């Protein structure tokens, strides 16, 4: 199982990510992605879904038309782990197309 | 553009759907779908996405692992229309596999 990140690791991880923010009151990170259309937003979600299934680590996310709001945390570990950082990095890459 | 449903049409439409509930404080309907796995949940979402794109009418939805929570309303019409009923019926059918 992935270990929960310590404060230093957490800070280092966040600095490598693009625009992810800590979530108030939870050991989690969140980001809102905007696309041009639903087609692009769901295309992004499909890529993330395949990656999530491969990592066996899944996002909490919502979608309204061209917007995808994502929260990442590792339930089994009770907070942020390397798995969240991996998935966040993939999402940043996919969002760039 | 689709017209907002009147009270009678709305009631008739809801009675044809499987487990959709009115949303408090909004002219919208909502349903929570549960699947066995993320694979099944996202498979459902992919089918709904294709249908939504064809109808040019999109859900507000969120997903956490095997759960998909959906809210339907027609923004342009300021409430529930025949488009929401069509999309809801398709979702009910897809959820049955």
UniProtKB/TrEMBL annotation, chains A, B:
Cross-referenced CDD domains: PCD_DCoH_subfamily_b
Lyase among keywords: yes
EC number: 4.2.1.96
Catalytic activity: (4aS,6R)-4a-hydroxy-L-erythro-5,6,7,8-tetrahydrobiopterin = (6R)-L-erythro-6,7-dihydrobiopterin + H2O
Record-linked Pfam families: Pterin_4a (PF01329)
Keyword Nucleus assigned: no
GO biological process: tetrahydrobiopterin biosynthetic process
Gene Ontology molecular function, alphabetical: 4-alpha-hydroxytetrahydrobiopterin dehydratase activity
InterPro entries: PCD_sf (IPR036428), Pterin_deHydtase (IPR001533)
Lineage: superkingdom: Bacteria
Keywords: Lyase
Family of the protein in this entry: Belongs to the pterin-4-alpha-carbinolamine dehydratase family.
The protein, known as: Putative pterin-4-alpha-carbinolamine dehydratase
């Amino acid at each position: 199982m992935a270990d929960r990140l310590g404060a230093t690791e957490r800070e280092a991880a966040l600095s490598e990510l693009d625009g992810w923010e800590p979530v108030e009151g939870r050991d989690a990170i969140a980001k809102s992605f905007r696309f041009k259309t639903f087609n692009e937003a769901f295309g992004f979600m499909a890529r993330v879904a395949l990656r999530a299934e491969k990592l066996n680590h899944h996002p909490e996310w919502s979608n309204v038309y061209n917007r995808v709001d994502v929260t990442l945390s590792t339930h089994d570990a009770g907070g942020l782990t390397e798995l969240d950082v991996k998935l966040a990095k993939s999402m940043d890459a996919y969002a760039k197309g």
